Amino acid sequence: MMELEHSFTIPVSPERAWQVLLDVEQVAPCMPGATVDSVDGDVVTGKVKVKVGPVALTYSGKARFTERDEQAKSITLEASGKETRGSGTASATVHSWLEPEGDQTRVMVHTTMNVTGRPAQFGRGVMADVSGRIIERFASNLAVQCAGGAPVGAAAGARTAAADGGPVAGADGAPLHPIEDLQLPVRTFNSLRREGIHTVRDLSARSEADLLTIPDLGPQSVSDIKQKLAEQGLALASVAGAGAATSAGPADTAAAPPPQAARPPDEDAIDLLSVAGFPVLKRALPIGVVAAVVITVLLLGRRRRRRRA
Amino acid sequence: MIPAKFDYTRPGSVDEAVRALADGGEDAKVIAGGQSLLPLLRLRLSFPDLLVDVGGLGELRGVRDEGATLWIGALTTIDETARDPVIAQHCGLLAQTATLIADPAVRHRGTVGGALAHADPAGDLPAVATALDAMMIARGPAGERAIGAGEFFLDYLTTALEPSEILTGIRVPKLGPGWGYRYEKFHLTAQAWAIVGVAALARRANGHVAEARIGLTNMGLVPVRAQAAEQAVAGAEASAQSLRAAAERADEGTQPPSDLHGGSDYRRHLARVLTARALAVASGV
Question: DSSP secondary-structure letter at B2?
Answer without folding.
Answer: P
